[in-house]
Design goal:
By secondary structure, this protein is α+β, with helices and mostly antiparallel strands. The protein has one domain. Helices cover 15% and strands 33% of the residues. The strands form two sheets. Strands 1-7-6-3-4 form a five-stranded mixed β-sheet. The protein has a two-stranded antiparallel sheet with strand order 2-5.
Length: 117
C-alpha cells in the first residue's frame, strides 16, 4: 500500500530514523508474515538495502543478506521473517532508478503505526 507520509506521523518518524538521507517521496507499507528476500547484491542495476528497527527502543540493525562484502547481524541469511516489535525497511533501486522506501510490519505492529493525524 502506497501512503502519504503527512497523514501518518509515526510512519514518517520510522522512515526518517531508518534512512535519514532519503529525500524521495515514494513510501509503501506491507503487512508481512511470510519471509522477505533480503539478498542485497547488485544484479542488472537492481539492488535493495535493508535495515531492521526495533520499535520499542529505536535500535537499528543492518541486514546484509547474502552480500559477503558487507557482513552484518543477519549475514549469510537470504530471508527475514517479520517478528512482533520489529519493522524491516527496504530502500530499493530497480534498473538504476530509486523506487523508494517500503516498510514490512508484522500484523501485530501495523495498526498503531497507521493512526491518522
Amino acid at each position: 500500500m502506497k501512503i502519504r507520509l503527512k497523514d501518518f506521523p509515526e510512519l514518517k518518524r520510522i522512515f526518517k530514523l531508518v534512512f535519514p538521507a532519503y529525500k524521495g517521496r515514494t513510501f509503501a507499507v506491507e503487512v508481512q508474515e511470510s519471509p522477505v528476500d533480503v539478498a542485497s547484491c547488485w544484479d542488472g542495476g537492481t539492488r535493495s538495502y535493508f535495515r531492521l528497527l526495533r520499535l520499542s527502543s529505536g535500535k537499528m540493525l543492518t541486514v546484509s543478506g547474502a552480500n559477503p562484502m558487507h557482513p552484518g547481524t543477519l549475514s549469510g541469511k537470504d530471508t527475514y521473517t517479520a517478528k512482533p516489535g520489529y519493522v524491516l525497511v527496504e530502500h530499493c533501486y530497480f534498473c538504476g532508478k530509486d523506487m523508494g522506501l517500503r516498510a514490512y510490519f508484522h500484523p501485530e505492529d501495523v495498526a498503531p503505526q497507521l493512526v491518522v493525524s
